[in-house]
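Researcher: Let's do a round of design. I'm pasting the structure tokens now; please hold your answer until I've finished.
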């Protein structure tokens, strides 16, 4: 039986990224995944009709713009091609209102300026702040997290440190009210906080909204040509070129540990795959699954298992996948129709706050924040000619239903509720933003939070972030302080997924950062043994 130098559990894009660097360093590397293909949260499939290719979860290539991985691994040679649209995204409001973020900042300033000239000028300044900070942000993202003591010390020594500390903790409402005079502008920028589950009054929402929006202004809201799946496929191609192997359709049930070290992994079939004597295991699954299920109390300790059990996951998602008979027409006009990303909401923090109150009380939200992802607008290869493919991402729905804020939905299980709720939401979008949407639908598929979890076991409670974005679950505390530097108490078992710094999204950063830590540990171990010899 072959023994591997590295076994990576989970073939999501971070797991594959980690595996690529390990294989490039000469380790005999195997990646295992329970799904039928690689990609995890970055897959593209014909969910509705043949020829209509939907990104199942991730769509935008956003923070990945700051990653060195595509250049370091030459992913363009393995099929990765990016599309940069002219319009990065639009936010549409009831009654036909719209603000669009264009490729050029001055065009964005003009779009904001239809509501407030002052807000347009403010955005020019805030977008410029990101350009000045970009290199530091990239270094922060693509390095292991600093300790809390170092982070605080560096901030205290910086002339602008206390102002940065304040800005990092501001809620979206506080930050938006400070910088912009119109509610439309506040929602145009602030909608990005919803992508990581931050309500208007949650700590850190203002900084997250600025970070998302200004990065997109600077580097573009790119898409992967042919679908997001082409990214993990390119990583898989590189891994193959380095002698690495991938097995899909197999699930790891346990990491086998003897005398404080992993010696292999056991599959649900009973098969055991062995590690070489100095081999390592890297986990790309959610941190609870690693700590509680794959390792367990006997090997990692009761205290850590109990801490992991109280880990917070955040709010669930519901997704509606649509095959359409033609392009979507918006009341807001041609800029919306040219946008692959469309945020749809009233211009009101009170509206946003109500959604989170309803969701976190266990009720189905009456008017959730929705993102209309018009994949085929910028990538016609995703559907037949003359047709369109869309994904409606419904933020902030409860995993367990305890009530209904719509007043129209019966039932308390998602299997019973998801189709009537999707009917309700499609009617709302058609009546409020896109008058031709409903009659254009050829086929619809709905994934509730429960469906998402069934499909992808690491999508705990129908979330896609491997843990909520909270101050005590970020940086040197993600997922827990004891696990924050990609290491576990089992000496040769590591984390490499979105449950580690810098967190969720398509970044490739946790996988790359973790690989660097593993390779340094292996190098140090080899040096120690050489010195001892």
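Researcher: That's everything. Go ahead.
Model: Designed sequence:
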């Amino acid at each position: 039986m072959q023994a591997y130098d590295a076994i990576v559990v989970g073939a999501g894009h971070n797991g594959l990224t980690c595996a690529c660097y390990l294989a490039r360093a000469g380790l005999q590397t195997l990646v295992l995944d329970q799904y039928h293909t690689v990609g995890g949260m970055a897959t593209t499939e014909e969910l509705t009709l043949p020829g209509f290719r939907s990104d199942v979860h991730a769509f935008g290539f956003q923070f990945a713009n700051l990653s060195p991985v595509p250049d370091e691994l030459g992913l363009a040679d393995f099929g990765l091609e990016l599309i940069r649209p002219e319009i990065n995204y639009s936010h549409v409001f009831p009654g036909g209102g719209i603000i669009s973020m264009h490729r050029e900042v001055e065009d964005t300033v003009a779009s904001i300026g239809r509501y407030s000239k002052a807000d347009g000028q403010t955005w020019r300044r805030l977008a410029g702040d990101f350009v000045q900070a970009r290199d530091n942000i990239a270094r922060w993202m693509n390095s292991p997290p600093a300790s809390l003591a170092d982070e605080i010390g560096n901030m205290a020594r910086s002339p602008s440190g206390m102002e940065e500390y304040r800005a990092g903790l501001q809620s979206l409402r506080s930050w938006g009210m400070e910088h912009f005079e119109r509610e439309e502008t506040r929602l145009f920028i602030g909608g990005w906080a919803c992508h990581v589950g931050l309500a208007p009054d949650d700590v850190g929402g203002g900084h997250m909204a600025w970070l998302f929006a200004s990065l997109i202004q600077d580097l573009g809201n790119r898409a992967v040509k042919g679908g997001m799946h082409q990214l993990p496929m390119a990583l898989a191609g590189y891994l193959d070129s380095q002698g690495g192997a991938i097995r899909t359709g197999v699930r790891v049930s346990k990491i086998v540990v003897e005398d404080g070290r992993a010696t292999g992994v056991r599959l649900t079939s009973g098969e055991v795959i062995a590690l070489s004597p100095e081999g390592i295991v890297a986990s790309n699954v959610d941190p609870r699954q690693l700590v509680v299920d794959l390792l367990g109390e006997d090997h990692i300790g009761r205290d850590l298992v109990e801490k992991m059990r109280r880990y917070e996951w955040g709010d669930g998602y519901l997704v509606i996948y649509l095959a359409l008979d033609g392009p979507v027409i918006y009341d807001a006009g041609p800029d919306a129709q040219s946008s692959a990303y469309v945020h749809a909401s009233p211009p009101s923090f009170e509206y946003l706050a109500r959604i989170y109150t309803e969701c976190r009380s266990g009720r189905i939200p009456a008017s959730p924040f929705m993102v209309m992802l018009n994949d085929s607008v910028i990538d016609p290869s995703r559907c037949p000619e003359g047709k369109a493919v869309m994904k409606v991402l419904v933020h902030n729905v409860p995993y367990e239903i305890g009530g209904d804020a719509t007043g129209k939905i019966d039932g308390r299980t998602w299997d019973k509720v998801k189709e009537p709720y999707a009917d309700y939401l499609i009617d709302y979008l058609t009546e409020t933003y896109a008058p031709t949407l409903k009659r254009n639908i050829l086929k619809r598929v709905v994934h509730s939070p429960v469906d998402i979890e069934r499909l992808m076991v690491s999508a705990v409670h129908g979330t896609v972030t491997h843990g909520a974005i909270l101050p005590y679950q970020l940086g040197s505390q993600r997922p827990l302080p004891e696990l924050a530097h990609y290491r576990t108490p089992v000496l040769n078992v590591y984390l490499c997924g979105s449950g580690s710094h810098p967190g969720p999204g398509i970044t490739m950063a946790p996988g790359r950062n973790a690989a660097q830590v593993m390779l340094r540990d292996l190098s140090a171990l080899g040096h120690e043994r050489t010195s001892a010899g």
